[in-house]
Amino acid sequence: MTLTKNKYYFEALDHFPYNMSDCLDALNYALSYEPEDADSLCLMGRIHSEVLKDYETAKKYFEEAMQSNIGNVNTPKYYIECLLSNEDYEEAERLINYALKMKGIDKAEILLGKSLLFERKGDYDTALEQIREARKFSYCRNMMDILEDREKLIHDKMHESKKEEVAE
């Protein structure tokens, strides 16, 4: 069953997010073969979070994925993004702290999420600290570019907020 499930999961992943009809068909097949597959549940959570903007349903899929395989390093990143989009900051912070302890997880991505959490809270200095920390765990040019762009954006926000304070 695992090979069949994997075939449909990879087919769904291949269609995501450009052909949602085929993606959902393949994903439903994958889940019918293995209803507790963490990767398939995570992808279903991503569909609800990123495409449908149905964060509450997405959270249920992500929670189920985490319960099915607590060691799955793919789920936390997307679950954190969902929680941040839904403004569930306390939950996101708990998940970030847990995820940073997971063996094999991309710490740069998780720290980028932590930076976004502090940025959303308006704590720009701490957000910049998290970006600096993420650089230590970044091992590719693409991630370094993302971190540099986030840092510039936060600096711009800091300057704007200082201008607003002076104007008042």
Give structural notes.
The protein has helices spanning 2-15, 20-33, 38-51, 55-68, 75-85, 89-99, 107-120, 124-136, 141-167. Helix 1 runs antiparallel to helix 2 (20-33) and helix 5 (75-85) runs parallel beside helix 7. The termini are far apart. It has 9 helices and no strands. By secondary structure, the protein is an all-alpha fold. The longest helix is centred in the last third of the chain and has 27 residues, at 141-167.
Q: What is the SS-derived class?
A: mainly alpha
* Mean pLDDT figure: 94
| General shape | elongated
Give the proportion of residues in helices: over 70%
Q: Could you give the count of β-strands?
A: 0
Count of alpha and pi helical runs: 9
Distance between the termini: 65 Å
The biggest sheet, with number of strands, parallel, antiparallel or mixed sense and barrel status, is: none
Q: What proportion strand? A: under 5%
Helix-strand pattern: HHHHHHHHH
Rg result? 18 Å
User: Spans with pLDDT under 50 lasting ≥5 residues?
Assistant: none
